[in-house]
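User
New here, explain this?
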Amino acid sequence: MVVLAASVVSKSGKALVSRQFVDMSRSRIEGLLAAFPKLVGTGKQHTYVETENVRYVYQPIEALFLLVITNKQSNILEDLETLRLLSKLVPEYSPSLDEVGVCRAAFDLASAFDEAISLGNKENVTVAQIKQYCEMESHEEKLYKLVMQSKINETKDHMRRRVTEIEKSKIDRGKTEKAFAPLRSPNDFSDTNSRGAGLGGDPIFADSFTQKPKGVPSALTATSKVAGGMKLGKAKKTNQFLESLKAEGELISEDTQPSGSQSKLSSVPPSDPIAVAIEEKINVTVKRDAGIHSFDIQGTLALQVLNDTDGFIQLQIKNQDLPGLSFKTHPYINKELFSSQQIIGAKDLNRPFPSGQNETPLVKWRIQELEESSLPLSVNCWPSVSGNETYVNIEYEASEMFDLHNVVISIPLPALRGAPSVRQIDGEWKYDSRNSLLEWSIILIDQSNRSGSMEFAVPAADPSTFFPISVGFSASSTFSNLKVASILPLREGNPPKFSQRIQLVTDNYLVI
């Protein structure tokens, strides 16, 4: 299943919210949405429409349509399940199911769609989980804020009590001064006023500030000199708060400070303890008049081990025996074992493979002596000048060895005032005015479309202007067909689970 886009559109075809999940041009998605109102039927609650390249799966929501666009190879049952999940999300974030309400909730809906679909694939989540992910709630953060608010409230209470005590002391001192006023001389009052002038004229303020320890906030200083000294009781109240949360079923740690790294790691779903990445890169330069200038393949096998205990392993690989295929192993690897039995293992069996989140390259290889018939994709360009225009016909032919994904053929153009006139195309096109490029894109090339063509016209130009043509694509299989057949544990126990990602990508693919 590959979901190209999810949208909420009006019945007139106006896109209110649209989120795409694969690399596609704006003109491509706008064209697909514009074509939808002409294809949609009436009187159905759940239905779909197929065109030559895509499938529209949609559901009416009052005066709107919830629309999911997928490729034709997608499983219709999975498409309906995705549509059902999205139909539950729209009312959650847009209570008013009209154009105004959906536009107001567009940002929240786009975020919710991202949580439901990732890279074109439906995530195994519920509506409640999506709402939690979008709200980004954290129990540690909530606990931290509550504890800090409790401390602030305790400090304010302590300050109010302290002010009350000071005011009471001032009143008692005034009564004492009145009672002994005849026994004092004028000099005594002048001395008192001069000593207290810098501190508000009251010695009590002087005592309270001069006796405060440096570096400690006054609100948190214990008032031991006042009769019936006070204690903050912070630990008791905090513990009561933690106990109440524990009673409600929350998992509370003793350290209430939130840890960013721990919360981040806890949100990442667990993966297989061992992951293998196999990648081959194509470097090819093809002559426009047929023939190959250069053609080679460079491959890498990288290993990722999450835990140290799973690093005591060996990898049994297998590959297709091709002429011109040569391997190079990491110095850490036992070369004799690899050459004789195709087993990737460390020289020192007591040392595990490195662990962590980074991939470690173990084996590299190169394939040379390849012929033109081995090209995954051949591109031919035929420019011809007729009057004031140049007509350009481009065609591709794909090998049956690979199914190619996200194919982009970039053709240089002369400086133009506007976009070229594309008259026929198998796929989609986009004009890059800044770099003066015409990008021809095909999402998938498989048995149904091993060949295709495009024709466009521009003002009269030199035929060499349309070269070099750059090609980019990816595939889920490789030339060497190298893969890990099994994991061989070096210690007792069952072999750990592993996953492997195999892909073929273009590094430099030119038609000159």
Summary: Confidence is low (pLDDT under 50) at residues 180-231, 233-238, 250-270. Residues 395 and 453 are 4 Å apart (CA to CA). The longest strand covers residues 292-305. The chain is about 30% helix and 35% strand.
